[in-house]
Amino acid sequence: MGGIYDFDLHEGRFARRRESRTREFRTLSTPREIQAAHASLPRPGSPSFLAGRSDEATMRHVVDDIVPGLSGQGLSSRYYGFVTGGVLPLAEWADNVVSGLDQNVQVHLPEQSAATAVEDAALRMLVALLRLGDDDAWTGRTFTTGATGSNVLGLACGREAVLGTKLGDGDSVGELGLLGACAKAGVTQLQVLTSAAHSSLSKAASVVGFGRSAVKELRLSDEEPWRLDLAALETELQVPGTASVIALSAGEVNTGRFALSGVDEMRKVRELADKYGAWIHVDGAFGIFVRALEDKDEYKLLHKRVEGIELADSITVDGHKLLNVPYDCGMFLTRSHLTLQSVFTNPNAAYLASGSQDPIPSPLNIGLENSRRFRALPAYVVLLSEGRSGMAALIANMVALSRQVAAFLRDSEHYELLPDESADLDEVFMIVLFRAKDAALNEVLVEKINETRHMYVSGTRWKGQKAVRMAVSTWRVDVARDYEVVTSILTHVAEGKQFDIKSCPLKRSELSSQDPPKMFEQVL
Ligand SMILES: *Cc1c(COP(=O)(O)O)cnc(C)c1O
């Protein structure tokens, strides 16, 4: 822990980290390095297996063998796979404090630890950053392991609330179980009504007992599959014997588009939910951060798309994506802490009682885990240090690069911007979807781009054909430089030419060593 609280020491490290943003780190190691990492792992049956090693030899193994076989997602500004985010220097420092102090944030013990109060303060700042209205209205709020965890909480709360209303008499799924509750309430079908939801919603549906097949896609059209068909929604809500959760994608993963066009549709969904006794869950893992953008003309359309989200019953937010904190951080918000507690109460354990009348509940009664990491601290320091303007600038940077690349693709002879080339570029948030016009190139486009190792993208399918998605989600974005490199790579790939980072007009000093352990050393 030596020096972990030494500001002068860390100031230097933070400065190096921020400065490293101007340097080039490759997005992936070479296949040889990755194979070598695999080959270095302990083998059962070998004489050294579990024989123990000195700390130094163990560290050396990690630095020399494992680190070279890891991806550059934390260091490169152009790791655009999935939606991964990055780690702000201060968040990394806070994460080390968390590990060093190893707080078990499960019981609210205000006289013994401030950890639960810090969690609560972070969640209140988040509610304000995302302009979700009065933070006291989101009485059920907690940190989760990520958006999948939050989606599990969302569906679990939906199940509890919707069936609870049908049961009456204070009966609950938490007490009766799903089978008993459905039988008693006369419910024969549970359904999750959605459009182009993230795959984790199906996983959550399986975990909470709806079943994956309960997830019903109500897409408005093939042209705009992310949009929810409100007429179909009403039809499904009316089916006798059903209990429904409406799950809105606020940020579809292929396109970054939104399930609803704006607040009028959101009001309509709220009205339908109230009329038919359904729960509204918004999966805003990354898309809800639109609400952290400034009130400017260029974001007007995006703001419109997420207007009214505060009318939902529960919301998923991801921390380890756009908030740029290390992995193991998501948030869950609901207006109904009683519902959350009804599901997650950890009963009859006197030794875990907080014995406090404090309004902050014990995390173990409002989430999946009992013992749990102090995962709020990195989010707390990011929200505190960046503030509203810092977060707005961070996200704006991602939007700027995404829109510039989208414009390049739209105007390119080689590429087609998806989902709709004629759409307003103001619809672009931080995901860009595209494909090559040449069918043969399109088949291998992801591999060709990733082979350059200076830009990493994920493949997907769009309307039955392969497509490429580029998700810009790290604080390391440097709009001018990254635009230069990305468009150079895309042009080289389209023209069948070998890409060489040295051919980009970057300052030579920006090219760092290609040796991954050294990459880390330079930065850490
Ligand atoms: C990433 C993502 C998830 C899953 O989140 P994890 O943090 O990976 O568990 C769920 N929904 C959306 C919209 C996402 O982008």
List the helices and strands and how they pair.
Elements (H helix, E strand, L loop, with lengths): L6 H14 L10 H9 L15 H12 L22 H13 L13 H15 L10 E5 L2 H21 L5 H13 L3 E6 L4 H9 L7 E3 L12 H8 L4 E8 L13 H14 L2 E5 L16 H6 L8 E5 L11 E5 L2 H8 L31 H36 L3 E4 L12 E6 L2 H13 L6 E5 L2 E7 L7 H16 L21 H8 L1
Parallel strand pairs: 2-3, 2-4, 4-5, 5-6
Antiparallel strand pairs: 1-7, 6-7, 8-9, 9-11, 10-11
Bound molecules: pyridoxal-5'-phosphate.
Termini Cα gap: 15 Å
User: Strand share of the residues?
Assistant: 5-15%
Mean pLDDT: 94
Could you give the count of β-strands? 11
Number of helices, where a helix is a run of at least 4 consecutive DSSP H or I residues: 16
Summarize the structure.
With 524 residues, the chain is an alpha/beta fold.
Overview of the structural elements:
There is one protein chain. With 524 residues, the protein is an alpha/beta fold. It contains 16 helices and eleven strands. Helix 6 (147-167) packs across helix 12 (337-344), helix 9 (230-237) runs parallel beside helix 10 and helix 13 (376-411) packs across helix 15 (479-494). The longest helix is centred in the C-terminal third of the chain and has 36 residues, at 376-411. The radius of gyration is 24 Å and the shape is globular. Bound molecules: pyridoxal-5'-phosphate. Pyridoxal-5'-phosphate (PLP) is lined by residues 83, 146-148, 151, 198, 200, 251, 253, 283, 285-286, 318, 330. Residues 83, 146-148, 151, 198, 200, 251, 253, 283, 285-286, 318, 330 line the site of pyridoxal-5'-phosphate (PLP). It comes from Neonectria punicea. Keywords: Lyase, Pyridoxal phosphate. Belongs to the group II decarboxylase family. This is L-2,4-diaminobutyrate decarboxylase.
